[in-house]
Amino acid sequence: MRLKSLRYSEFRDTPQEWVLEGLELTADVNLLVGKNASGKSRVINVIHNISLAIAGKRSLGDGSFDVLFDHEGKAIRYELDKVDGKVTLEAFSVNGEEMMRRGHNGIGQILAEKLKGRLEFQPPEDQLAIISRRDNLQHPFFEPIHQWARSVFCFRFGTDLGQRTFGVGVKMADSLIEVPDPGDPDRVVAIFQHGKKSFGEAFLSAVREDLQKVGYAADEVGLRQPRGMRLEVPGDLLGLFVRERDLGDATDQNNMSQGMFRALSLLVQVNHAILSGKPSCILIDDIGEGLDFERSCGLIDAVMSRARSSQAQLVMATNDRFVMNRVPLDNWSVLCRKGGRVSVRDYRNSREVFEGFLATGLSNFDFLALDYARPP
Length: 376
Prior knowledge:
globular, four-stranded antiparallel beta sheet, alpha+beta
């Protein structure tokens, strides 16, 4: 299941209007670039919020959504309009055939496959029919989008990604060990603990190898009581550590630089997700922030390699020149904001512009810095 395109708007015809006119995504790696306040983080948020809403984890705010997916060669389209907390339009189609549509007051029709016909229905106006009418016997066409929604991972590289969150180690039966919520990136200690127990050396070696790609000479990654930290807890206080071959002792997570810990946390969680066989889409906002050139490039290479090996779709956002220079232009989506409207230029809709720039021999960053993507 791949996200192919997204159109979104909110507060239409008001001073707060914000419209994404259309974002088209490639099959594997996608990089959202643009000047500050162009809408990169907002797009990441919209994709993440849609997944959370479909998974039943969060209610969507008002807005208009038009999302297109590819599932095994089939085009799946989901449309939703919400006004004042009420659904005014909700539609779902497969290859252009409408499976469900509802309008004002929640009244609509839905295909029931076992009954070989369409049923009238009226769910509550504040609820999504894609959730309330989920039924693998009568409406199995909803299942792929639910699988996608439960397998979206979002990481915000500009945050601490769990550096101030520790774990408590206690002895208990395996059946009682908590499985961490992969949707909570602050639980990286618990996620590491689960990955080590579930996947063993395959998980540990993957994290070490990726840290080495980033530029950290990691011989060991693990959990231990952080040096100098003591808390009254019913068990051992646990934090991540990295032992580098050119240092006399390991570095605990509370003593790591922000950039080092962000890289470690991201790689722990991406590898855990991939070994769990879960990710359909990995979202990373502000990737590379706080890292130097070599380490930023290494992180990009490591994440792209892992995503491609798992066939997960990777969507990253950045205005970091190192990241831009590492990701080919044909994987770029350049966001151009004028007022409250955001248009997107990419290799597919602006081929001549992109190829003309490539002929100059300039760096990828210059494509943005020199405003080549500015709409005519």
